[in-house]
TrEMBL record:
Keywords: Disulfide bond, Secreted, Signal. PANTHER family: INTESTINAL TREFOIL FACTOR-RELATED, TREFOIL FACTOR 2. It comes from Aythya fuligula (Tufted duck). GO terms for cellular component: extracellular space. SMART domains: PD. CDD domains: Trefoil. The keyword Disulfide bond applies. Residues 28-73, 79-122 form the P-type domain. GO terms for biological process: maintenance of gastrointestinal epithelium. It is found in: Secreted. This is Trefoil factor 2-like. Pfam families: Trefoil (PF00088).
Length: 128
């Protein structure tokens, strides 16, 4: 492989590494509600709270002898049918029946006029 090819591969590798380490969203309080003895280490010794959260992990230094920077629980999400008809995203076609719509695993509400009656669920995070 020539020098140009190595440089291109190096740039791609650096960009991929940056993309996987930046932009992680900090976990929610619900995701960090973990019994101290169940915590799984997520950072190096001495990691700051800010660096821990930047890595997408939870930080709590109130309990000695357990990891302070630890892996968050996965978000609990559920599918709901949107109550606001203005945010419905069409999942069917004009004249679709409720049975056909639900067989597509979509929501069906035959009101109001002028909006989709067969529409996609929305995914929302469940409360703690």
């Amino acid at each position: 492989m020539d020098l140009k090819g190595i440089c291109v591969l190096s740039v791609i590798l650096v960009v991929a590494l940056i993309a996987t380490t930046e932009g992680k969203t900090p976990p929610t309080k619900c995701q960090c509600k973990i019994a101290p003895r169940e915590r799984k280490n997520c950072g190096h010794p001495g990691i700051s709270a800010a660096d821990c959260r930047k890595a997408g992990c939870c930080f709590n230094a109130s309990v000695p002898g357990v990891p302070w920077c630890f892996t968050a629980k996965p978000k609990k999400v559920k599918k709901v049918c949107p109550a606001d008809p203005r945010i419905r995203v069409n999942c069917g076609y004009p004249g679709i029946t409720a049975k056909e719509c639900t067989s597509r695993k979509c929501c069906f509400r035959a009101h109001p006029a002028g909006v989709p009656w067969c529409f996609y669920h929305r995914t929302v995070e469940e409360a703690c």
